[in-house]
Amino acid sequence: MAKKHSKNNAPAPNTGVEAELDAELAAVDEFDAAAGADDWSGGAPVRKAQHFWPSAKRLIGLMSPYKLGMVIVFALIAVYVVLSVIAPRILGKAMDVIFAGMIGKNIPAGTPADVIIQQLRDSGQGTQADMLSKVDFVPGQGIDFTQLSQYILIVLSMYFIASVFSWASGWLLNRLVMRVVYKLRKDVEDKLNRLPLNYFDTRQRGDLLSRVTNDVDNIQNALQQALSQLVQSVMTVIGIVVMMFVVSWQMALIALVALPLSAAAAGIIGTRAQKLFTAQWKNTGALNGQIEESFSGHELMKVFGREDDMVERFTARNEELYKASFGAQFVSGMIMPVMNFVSYLAYVGIAVVGGLRVASGTMSLGDATAFIQYSREFTQPLGQIAGVANMLQSGVASAERTFELLDAEEQDPDEATTALPERTDGHVAFENVTFSYSPEKPLIENLSFEADPGHTVAIVGPTGAGKTTLVNLVMRFYELNSGRILLDDIDVTDLSRADLRSKVGMVLQDAWLFGGSIMENIRYGRLDATDEEVVEAAKATFVDRFVRALPEGYDTVIDEEGTNVSAGEKQLITIARAFVANPSLLILDEATSSVDTRTELLVQQAMAALRSDRTSFVIAHRLSTIRDADTILVMEAGRIVEQGNHEQLLAAKGAYYNLYQSQFSGPAEDVDATEDTSMIPATGGVPVVGAPEPETGRALDS
């Protein structure tokens, strides 16, 4: 199925970015080059991520080129955490000031505090005495508002500074993440252009598009939102634990009982959720592939009345996606409620023990208040960690799919030892070429032939004979099993693929136009072509005739599906594209198979102009389109069974003769091998050249 995907090898035009970003990405590229085989960015890493933790580790590793920036982010978060966790302790001090003022106001002045406490003990009120022993009150004196205002101002300042540092860390981290994702997208695009055609032959385009778009977007969300919250929450937990032990190590132990219980619940539930998230994104890719097929083959689906079948297939895959997505969200959504329940149990225990310690005089009211606040703040980051676990698991599942793409085996690297001149003669020679798509199914074996410079070589044969494969080997879309192909006596494997393909022009069976003007579509063949050269190519290929009739002329924008021009006009534009490229070697792969008879005559004339003074390979099922070829190769099962010109092969009455007769209704004896049949009327059994002919069926060659 090679030719269906051959267009995928055309690299997309590069887009510009800011100079600053370019410089930073260049530095990252240097890092990548030094990282070696284990680098994530597009080589062939040693192993593929198969489970959550390897994939998560590799996902976090995407940030490694920005180590300095990440250190700054962590430092900013650390300052935020320190200020945030110290503030409740100072608020506790403020609470002690208020409580001391309330106690002192209700006690007559003049009696020292220690005397009052001793009097309470002597009167049997030991509990009250123990509680007052931890209060720094002054009999007869109320709340010290000066000291209280100082504490409040300190706390407000700390919270304000902490907020600024939190914002700064989030801004910097988001900036770093966007650069990482930018480079990841670039690496994915570069990887796609380095993959061999057989990779695309065996995968749905919808699934590939999902990996390149949906999965990368999900990675961005995971890094951009979950990572910052995760780092901040972990640091906050550590800071709060430290402050808890500073205030009361006994109560800290009670609070920490909830930690292993929460971790166990998150681990058990998270493992199950990760499997469901992986299934969710896998089913998303499958559903995208189904939708892409439905739209691209919409007309065919209508013709064969397969609407109900497509709806059933869509419903089945949508149901699978629904089950996986619902299960992933439901299971991962259980993490936070379970952790909250455990934290509430710890909170109740802390409140009870704290009240008893205040009453017994072993802890001040301010410290108890601060500790209770710590216990609530302790559960909040734990809950945040549980919340981002949902997003992290989804992001890791997407990362695993993206890494599978980045780890895919690439085509053999170029080992160019020579270069072609600016203009080549176009002499092509196959020497004992052997090739097969799979070892158990041989296709081409020990094939040898030559195409002389300036000659037209037509390749015909039944479906599956290897016609398209032959020209794909010339283009190095696939590598040979053995033998070699020479272009002007140079082995094509000694040339870079870019150098080789720059001398070759292709017109495919499926005319491909991208969203842009007609002028841009033609200029795609040679980006430095001037407007005059584009118009000249259009005139030579009969494009100018219909373009002039369009309201916008050459500035007419072709939509993504090319529906605002006819199939024949699309084909003529692709021929003009090849014409403006001015190649030394031309490949025409069923270029007239999808056009009407009248347009076919124009296409044939355009191709005749295009073939002038250059070596051409023409693949055709309509034998009338290749009657004037210098050499006709007849292929069967990967072998050349006959070769010669049209008259010679008809006279031989072999495989070509049988193919020729299968396309016409006239008896074999009516055909004169030496007769010029171009003037024989169609009613005589042999149609006029260019007239509509019945086809025996057309399929993509393997």
From TrEMBL:
CDD domains: ABC_6TM_Tm288_like, ABCC_Glucan_exporter_like. PROSITE patterns: ABC_TM1F, ABC_TRANSPORTER_1, ABC_TRANSPORTER_2. It holds the Pfam family ABC_tran. InterPro entries: AAA+_ATPase, ABC1_TM_dom, ABC1_TM_sf, ABC_transporter-like_ATP-bd, ABC_transporter-like_CS, P-loop_NTPase, Type_1_exporter. The keyword Lipoprotein does not apply. Its main location: membrane. The chain crosses the membrane at residues 68-87, 151-173, 230-247, 253-273, 341-359. Residues 668-702 are annotated as: Disordered. Residues 428-662 form the ABC transporter domain. GO terms for molecular function: ATP binding. It is a multi-pass membrane protein. Residues 71-394 form the ABC transmembrane type-1 domain. This is ATP-binding cassette subfamily B protein.
